[in-house]
Structures are given as C-alpha cells and as structure tokens.
Recover the amino acids of this structure.
C-alpha cells in the first residue's frame, strides 16, 4: 500500500472506530486504560529494546544530547507513562457532562452537553511518553486517535501503540481506537493534514515549523 492510501486507510478506519468510541461506557474505556498501563510495565523489556535502537540511530545521526535525553526511555520513565494512564482513569468522564443549562420563556429547557470530537490527529516530536499520554486522553474522551510521532522515535512509538491497541481490543474496543502513522516519510504529515473527510481536529505538539505546517491546513 502506498503512503497516500495508507494514510487514507487510517482515516477511514478511525472514523468507523470513533462511532463506537462515542458510545463506549466509562468502565470499558477505563478497563482499556488500566490494561494498557499494566502492559506497559509488563512489556518494559520490549519497549527498552525498541528504544535502544532509536537512541543508537539518533546518536549515529548526530542528535544533540538534549534530544537524545528526550528520546531515551528508562524503567522509571516507562512506569511514569503507565502512571499517567492510571491518572487518566481517575479523571471524570467528560462525555455526557452538562456544562450549561437554561430555560426558555416558553418553559423549554436547553442544555450544552460535552460530546466526543470524533477523530483526533496528534503530531508531535521526540518524546515517546506523548504517545501514551495523547492516546490515553483521547480514549477517555471517546475519540479515535491517529498519532504521528517524530521519526527519531519510530520504533519506540510502534511498540507503545502495539500495546495500546491490544489493550483496547481486549477491552472490547475497535482495533482502530489508537493508530500510528507507520512511516518516517515527511510527506506523511502533509497527507494526514489533507484527511478532512475523516480527521476532525489536528493537535500539533512541537516546534514552530510543525505548528506552521498544521495551521496552514485551514
């Protein structure tokens, strides 16, 4: 599958998954998050092995010591990722929350209620913990997620998303609940930004160049 078709496929499957997630119960979403936290800890050796390959490649490619530090996972950082998901479990479910209510002169009551956005694309750089944080927050809010991390963390992000996806499926959620753009081609960002039919919002987390690329979408 060429890159353009791959990105479009991510969008289509995410849109389908989003319909299921929009009505998923709080216990189901929390089960997926708890399972993901448990599996991040249990599969720490897998994560560390993938991360070591990324760090070695980054060092060979001349990444600065600061960027290498951001990229590097340790058992402590993996545990922090897992704890981050557990914190999200403890947050109140925003879906269905009434944020305002008023009564019309004719007696009709009108309320504003929070609903999921749908499909959220998140574009970010080298910190692997963002992968778990972004996916976890989107899942709790009933959204499907398409993640595009920095190429320097590609293997690490793949390993993290594999765990998140398996945990979602085990909890009864769609496989496309959390997806990753599995390409290091810079064109993949531009292609993701073009998926207006399927992606409802793009969230950039990174430098000025990334934010400029995303804002040019509109």
């Amino acid at each position: 599958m060429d890159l353009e078709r791959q990105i479009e496929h991510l969008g289509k499957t995410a849109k389908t998954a989003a319909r299921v997630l929009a009505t998923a119960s709080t216990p189901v979403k929390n089960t997926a998050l708890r399972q993901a936290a448990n599996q991040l800890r249990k599969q720490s050796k897998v994560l560390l092995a993938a991360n070591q390959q990324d760090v070695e490649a980054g060092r060979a490619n001349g990444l600065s010591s600061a960027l290498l530090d951001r990229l590097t996972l340790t058992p402590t950082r993996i545990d922090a990722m897992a704890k981050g998901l557990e914190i999200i479990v403890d947050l109140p479910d925003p879906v269905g929350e009434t944020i305002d209510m008023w009564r019309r002169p004719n007696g009709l009551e009108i309320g504003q209620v929070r609903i999921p956005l749908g499909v959220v694309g998140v574009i970010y750089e080298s910190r692997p913990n963002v992968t778990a944080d972004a996916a976890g927050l989107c899942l709790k809010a009933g959204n499907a997620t398409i993640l595009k991390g920095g190429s320097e963390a590609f293997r690490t992000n793949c390993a993290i998303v594999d765990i998140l996806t398996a945990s979602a499926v085990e909890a009864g959620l769609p496989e496309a609940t959390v997806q990753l753009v599995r390409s290091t081609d810079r064109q993949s960002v531009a292609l993701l930004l073009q998926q207006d039919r399927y992606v409802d919002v793009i969230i950039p987390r990174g430098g000025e160049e990334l934010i400029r690329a995303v804002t040019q979408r509109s």
About this structure: The chain has nine helices and six strands. Confidence is low (pLDDT under 50) at residues 213-218.
